[in-house]
Structure formats: C-alpha cells, structure tokens
Amino acid sequence: MNNTIKPLLSTNGAQLKEALTLVHSVFQEFEAPDYANEGIERFKQFITFDEITQQLVAKELMIWSHFSDESKITGMIALRLPNHISLLFVDKAYHKQGIARRLVETVATYCQTFHNISELTLNSSPYAIKAYKHLSFSPTDIQQEIDGIIFTPMKKIL
C-alpha cells in the first residue's frame, strides 16, 4: 500500500464527496446501530457536503485523506481547529492496517508544528472507544448523549 496522506482542500469537490461517502458508509455499518434515529439524522446533517465545505472555507476545519495505490480514498480525518478530531473513518477493507494511526500522527504533527498544541481531543462513538484507546487516547469523562449522538470525550497527550 502506498500510504499517501494528503490534505483535502475545499476546492476539490470530487475528493470531498468521495471522503464523505466513505464516512457515511462506515458510519452506517459500524456506528449507526448504536444510535437512535435522532443521532443518525444529526450525524448525516453534520457530514453534508455543504456543511463541511462551509467549515473548510471558514478555516474552522481541516481534512486529510489516506489514498490507496489506486488513488482511492481509504481513510480520512477531520480536525476542528485547533486540536479536536471531529471525524476519523477508515474503509472497512483497510481496517487494522495502521491507516488511522498514520492519520492521527499526521494531525498531531500539524498541531504541534503550526499551533504548538500538546494534546488532541475527540468525542468517541461507543464503537470506536477500543480503537482510540489503542491509539493512546484516554477517556476524560463518562459517556454522554447530545442530540442523539452518543460519545465519550477523550484526549491524547502529544
């Protein structure tokens, strides 16, 4: 595998649509079963092309994508500036190949280099807690639910 990670720019609509299609697909399979309809609909609203594009243009959000040898997006991570991971998804066929780790490392390097940040935060779905712990994130509070979205706040010291 080529393991190419590149920033995804708001000007590349085709790549953003591909990344969001990946997010939707992985969410539906692995995370939606833990959510009520309200949470599923809220998440789908959050990941619309227009919503994400607006955040990219406003420079509130940055996205990096992992590309396979075939130039297919196999993973993506979104960082709500300055240090909160708001999306991290990897194509099912590429799970357990280190893609999520490489994406987190890319974001950590960016945060340390450009924002002098010493920790990353995120809100983990119930499904992803084990994976985030494997990536050295630790819970900072108990599981919560807001607008139907179930999550556990976590952080990683860089």
From TrEMBL:
Listed GO MF terms: acyltransferase activity, transferring groups other than amino-acyl groups
Alphabetized Pfam families for the sequence: Acetyltransf_10
InterPro entries registered for this protein in UniProt: Acyl_CoA_acyltransferase, GNAT_dom, N-acetyltrans/Recomb-assoc
N-acetyltransferase domain: residues covered: 3-158
Gene3D superfamilies: 3.40.630.30
Transmembrane stretches, start-end: none
UniProt protein name: N-acetyltransferase domain-containing protein
Organism in which the protein naturally occurs: Enterococcus ureilyticus
